[in-house]
Design brief:
mainly alpha
């Protein structure tokens, strides 16, 4: 009953279907181990291929500190749709050297506030430019100014053009001059005059 109630709560919050909650028998469901008792040592020993069995429910229940020893290959195998319940603390706990192993499809499925707890702020630099093609406007909106200041040129150049017209002044003003100068012609051509005017509010248009 407790699991069913939690499943209903997660379904309402993230729009997860019943099918996505299907739980299969694998190492994550050791009958002698409660999900909340999973440790970093335990999770690090789970074979990478078994991470493909992770469901949104399982992701939501694993303690944040258990993510602190995950490897590239383990992260790569998590189904993108299972990351819709990934929490900010869980993402922050993942080793910095493994953060570049996500795909853009995985990034796109992550909750909008998932980047809100990155500490230190320059951890955002560990994400690859290709991963940034999966970043959404909502992700940027929840990033602190310190995190936004650490987004580099290659990452900026990969942002989807479709979100640029929606970026507000607060986000633009937090980006460095070098980052602003990295917007591609394709990205800029997709922006309307009103959006372009946001650059001039606290930013030097000569940087573009």
């Amino acid at each position: 009953a407790k699991q069913e109630a939690l499943q209903n709560t997660i379904s309402e919050q993230f729009g997860v279907s019943d099918e996505q909650f299907e739980i299969t028998e694998n190492a994550f469901l050791n009958p002698e181990l409660e999900l909340q008792q999973i440790t970093a040592d335990y999770l690090s020993e789970v074979p990478a291929n078994e991470f493909s069995e992770l469901t949104p429910y399982l992701v939501s229940q694993i303690p944040s500190n258990a993510f602190s020893q995950l490897s590239d290959s383990q992260l790569e195998n998590i189904p993108p749709t299972s990351l819709i319940t990934l929490q900010a603390g869980q993402l922050d706990a993942i080793p910095s050297e493994a953060l570049s192993s996500f795909t853009s499809e995985q990034i796109a499925q992550m909750p909008e506030d998932v980047f809100s707890a990155l500490d230190p702020a320059d951890k955002i630099k560990e994400f690859s430019a290709d991963e940034f093609s999966g970043i959404k406007l909502e992700h940027l909106s929840f990033m602190s100014s310190d995190v936004l200041e650490n987004i580099d040129n290659a990452q900026i150049a990969k942002l989807d053009s479709s979100i640029l017209s929606e970026i507000d002044v607060t986000i633009f003003s937090s980006l460095t001059s070098d980052a602003l100068a990295s917007f591609t012609s394709t990205q800029l051509n997709g922006m309307d005059p009103e959006s372009m005017s946001k650059f001039s509010q606290g930013n030097d248009l000569s940087n573009l």
